[in-house]
Amino acid sequence: xxxxxxxxxxxxxxxxxxxxxxxxxxxxxxxxxxxxxxxxxxxxxxxxxxxxxxxxxxxxxxxxxxxxxxxxxxxxxxxxxxxxxxxxxxxxxxxxxxxxxxxxxxxxxxxxxxxxxxxxxxxxxxxxxxxxxxxxxxxxxxxxxxxxxxxxxxxxxxxxxxxxxxxxxxxxxxxxxxxxxxxxxxxxxxxxxxxxxxxxxxxxxxxxxxxxxxxxxxxxxxxxxxxxxxxxxxxxxxxxxxxxxxxxxxxxxxxxxxxxxxxxxxxxxxxxxxxxxxxxxxxxxxxxxxxxxxxxxxxxxxxxxxxxxxxxxxxxxxxxxxxxxxxxxxxxxxxxxxxxxxxx
Length: 344
Known about the structure:
Blueprint: H1 3-13, H2 16-25, H3 35-44, H4 50-61, E1 69-75, H5 82-93, E2 102-109, E3 113-127, E4 134-148, E5 153-157, H6 161-174, E6 180-181, H7 184-188, H8 199-211, E7 217-226, E8 236-238, H9 248-255, E9 260-270, E10 276-284, E11 290-294, H10 301-321, H11 326-340
Antiparallel strand pairs: 1-5, 1-6, 1-11, 2-3, 3-4, 4-5, 7-8, 7-9, 9-10, 10-11
């Protein structure tokens, strides 16, 4: 992670007490024991190992043991240059105060990537514990938006779907970014092969069979989520095997045209440094943006981030180019139909 980003988040998210506990546990002795002094020492310390920086990230962003990397992916204005975007942010920042309803701050800037922190306050109606009367509470929301100027995609990290949507709406109102969903609904559904099965489901099968398999191995399909349908009240199917074919009920639903809107797999991946990791990958297809998640488990954050970026690139390629191998999907659909007959 960029040290400037880490420094910003440590300043914003940690207390002096937390930092003192950290340096005591690591047996570190900075000269300046103030919050700023400790953060300056930690961020620039040559004594810290990679796992120490991971611990600092967990203090700043919250534990990532289960969360790993999770973000909503969107697209933005391809006519916008990174320098122009930076100028606009700097221009707007002059008018933003601590009382502004929506605040943004530049966190990191590279040759083709720009990262900003979006901050806003969410009011929530709660009951006062002393008077038992309704009262408005306030919760500070922080969303990290990472803009990629090679792919013209933006990833919204560290927030719920509604919060990320609100951040995108505010950015569109303040900047010439034109953030919009990067979903395969609009682009490829009408162009997908005409079949009884739902077109989005065919693309989902293509992603699992023909794309994920190019970067690792699916050890197990753990679950498939279907769009809720009143007539059957189907939402999610759990799996016990390594293939979609392992569950006849899933095959029946797919063959009847029920739409798949998400999935979870247990995945084996070999990193660029030849480390083998086993973790969970999930995608949730939403009308306003797809969510990609890779669980951290007990592995290095850099390895999980590497896998996350590979999955993201596969999704973008599917958005741009559509199905990778129609013939193999048609063949697989025939197998699904045969399997579905077992429960029909």
